[in-house]
Amino acid sequence: MSRNAAADAHGSHLHANRVGILAMIASMGLFIVNDALVKYASQTMPAAQLIFIRGVMATLLVLAAAQAMGAMPRIREIARGWVAVRGLVDALGSLLFLVSLFHLPLANATAINMASPLFIVVLAAFLGERVGPTRWIAIGVGFAGILLIIQPHTEGFNVYALVCLVATVLIAVRDLVTRRVPAGVPSILITVSNTVAVTVLAGGLSVIEGWRAFDAFEMGLLTVAAAFLAAAYYLIVIGTRRGDLSLIVPFRYTAVLFATIVGFVVWGDTPNALAWCGIGLLIGSGIYLLRASRRARVSSAAPD
Q1: Cα-based torsion angle of the residue sequence 166, 167, 173, 178 in order, rounded to the nearest 10 degrees
Q2: Cβ-Cβ contacts under 8 Å for 9 (sequence gap 6 or more)
Q3: How many CB atoms lie within 10 A of CB 159?
């Protein structure tokens, strides 16, 4: 490879990382605003109903974007292979997270949801990847952080924290599946798959839960939430498909900052001292695991 070609490749790689990082940060901000809007709406609307209505709106927005981008001729790919699997897993994880969010402070639910890197490593170990002792220690530290956030032996313990933890496991599975989606599948179609799966699942649950009339203000909240959700879904797919995953994924933790600010402004919620300690342990262990995974991949790829 010539010097110019090598420089171009390096520049392209740096650009991909910058795009991935910015997409990840932006998606976290959009997700938090979306979460805050639906949490606020859940005070007066049945959960499944509001998720379904928001899902219909988000799906229409994403389909319009797919049409504008010329991806509609390949729309059937959303129901095939790893794209369909990812959509189903994401739908289950999203629904469980939203149900827990409606009963937890925004910052606490977001922090628990940030434990996905821990579960990714654990799942990888079950799939046969070698995990060294230092990474297991980091996992242990991360789970200690989760316990400090959940605080299972205090009066403030909420069983929905465990629901949020299950949702986090599903999010980790989704992220593993994302890497198996063929590179040629447009990101916008993966986004369509997500919104359709969530909408269909929520629609089925809404029939069981029941509906009630809603007013123009509630519809306005869900409309704005749908727009933010559609954009966030697309950006997170961009963020996880470009550049170095171990460099980009740690920027997901900006969601905790966004959630803390929004939770305080809207509801006056702030994590207590134990929860802050847990958030610190969780973020630290997650970043370490991501960096360690990157070093392991680089080492295994190096020639003997």
Answers
A1: 180
A2: 1
A3: 11
At residue 304, the pLDDT reads: 41
CB atoms within 10 A of CB 303: 3
CA distance 27 to 234: 8
End-to-end CA distance of the chain: 21
Neighbour tally for 9: CB within 10 Å: 11
Reported pTM: 0.82
CA distance 294 to 164: 27
Please tell me the distance from the alpha carbon of residue 145 to that of residue 284, in angstroms, as a whole number.
10
d(CA 42, CA 51): 9
Q: What pLDDT score does 300 carry?
A: 52
What's the full length of the chain, in residues?
A: 304
What are the pLDDT digits (tens) for 92-147? 999 999 999 999 999 999 999 988 888 888 888 887 778 888 989 999 999 999 98
Segment 136-185, tens digit of pLDDT: 999 999 999 998 898 876 555 578 999 999 999 999 999 889 888 888 89
CB atoms within 10 A of CB 137: 12
Count Cβ atoms below 10 Å from residue 133 Cβ, excluding itself.
7
Residue with tokens 């986090």: 168
Task: Look up residue 100 and give its two tokens.
Answer: 């827990």
Token readout for 225 is 């939430």
Q: Tell me how far apart the alpha carbons of residues 43 and 34 are, in angstroms, rounded to a whole number.
A: 15
